[in-house]
Amino acid sequence: MVESRVLQESEKRGHEQVVFFHYPRVGLKAIVGIHNTVLGPALGGCRMRLYDDESQALEDVLRLSEGMTYKSSIAGLDLGGGKSCIIADRNLSGEARENLFRQFGHCLEHLHGRYITAEDMGTSVQDVMWMREVTQFAAGFSREKGGSGDPSPWTAKGVFHSIVAACERRYNSKDLKSRHVTVQGVGHVGLYLVGHLLEAGAKVTVCDSRPEALDETKAKYPVEVVELEKIYDVECDVYAPCAIGQTVNEATLPRLRCDIIAGAANNVLSGPDVYSIIDEKNILYCPDFVINSGGVISVGGELIEGGWKESWVAEKVKNIYHTIHRILDESEKRKRFPEVVAIELAKERIREAEEQQGVLNP
Ligand code: NAD
Q1: Positive or negative CA dihedral for 246, 249, 254, 258?
Q2: Which of 68, 208, 225, 297 for a ligand 1 pocket mutation test, highest count of atoms within 8 Å of Cβ?
Q3: What is the pTM of this model?
Q4: How many whole angstroms from 242 Cα to the centroid of ligand 1?
Q5: How close is the Cα of 115 to the center of ligand 1, in Å?
Q6: Does the pLDDT at position 133 exceed 90?
Q7: Tens digits of per-residue pLDDT, 153-191?
């Protein structure tokens, strides 16, 4: 029964492999979703949380691993898409946590590098380090240890390049001096983004649900602060959501007074039903999974020959600017919404690689 559902779901989304691990001795229950490995090993983070039920965990893994395929493909990485989840309390600590992650590391060895994990919601760099003790198939560790370090500055840089590209299209100028950008959420990514925007001469308005994040931002930068809900009403050029998903929805869209939406948050749109509203409002939308790919580019940099190199990562992140132009060009040509076109282009790259390989991936 459950088995047939997994196969049905995999068929619907195009997954290559879904693996379940169960080691009760250390309390490990995990699902690994390998969506596509045509371009390379499937890279994607490991989430840890207590799901309401197993099907919710499975849905998360299948949906997110598919998304990773498109994100890595459009970012020009030779990597596929994968994701995993560990069904356990994210606050587990001490030896029990260490043992659980070491065991998960052993599990990844069974997959022979078809899936490479990294930090995600509920997991930490320390968890990655425990896995690294037993497997090389865990990425995203500290700079001191030869890893890629915090991905957030790279994510912010990619979003910044995208905002420049979007402004160039809308206003025929890359100059951000007369631009006003609202940034929702000044956490890891948002704060770096604010820095880049101000450096480029833009005016920046921010909001955050944590007063300490606002205090830190105000102490560092000359920004205007508005209350949480007010961010949707501010007249601006660019709305950059960098907090939570689905903030662009049927309720917020009538209020948004911007020309461009470009932010780091995953799943910015509530769903495809808002495409037409965005088009009607003549808002230029930069697909989230394209512009926030700086993080995966940086983590993926650990896997290149010779290891992580800042110049390699910077080059690829800079290229997000050209990718946004390409998507928007194609969006005009194909007369389809940018998010749809971005997925099409990601799939086309995979199809071309498949044709070049000549055979189906072994
Ligand atoms: P973060 O948790 O460090 O920052 C998010 C900030 O948003 C926090 O300061 C939080 O207080 C604030 N916030 C939460 N709810 C809010 C609300 N309703 N209104 C305003 N502010 C709110 O996370 P982050 O690492 O900066 O990531 C930001 C977003 O970008 C997330 O959606 C994340 O999934 C996505 N993302 C991050 C990376 C990365 O490299 N960190 C990569 C890709 C995507």
Answers
A1: positive
A2: 208
A3: 0.94
A4: 5
A5: 26
A6: yes
A7: 999 999 999 999 999 999 999 999 989 999 999 999 999
Residues 6+ away with beta carbon under 8 Å from 69: 35, 36, 42, 80, 81, 346, 350
Mean pLDDT score, 198-224: 98
> Are 359 and 48 a contacting pair, CB within 8 Å?
no
Does pLDDT of 359 surpass 80?
no
Would you report the helix, strand and coil content of the chain in percent, each value rounded to 5?
50, 15, 35
DSSP, collapsed to helix, strand or coil, labels residue 298 as: helix
Residue 289, pLDDT > 60, answer yes
Q: Give yes or no for residue 21 having a pLDDT over 50.
A: yes
Q: Are 88 and 75 in contact (CB under 8 A)?
A: no
Catalytic status, residue 83: yes
Whether 188 is in the pocket of ligand 1, judged by its Cβ within 6 Å, is yes
Instruction: Give the domains, in start order, of the chain with CATH numbers.
Output: 2-63+79-139 (3.40.50.10860), 152-293+322-346 (3.40.50.720)
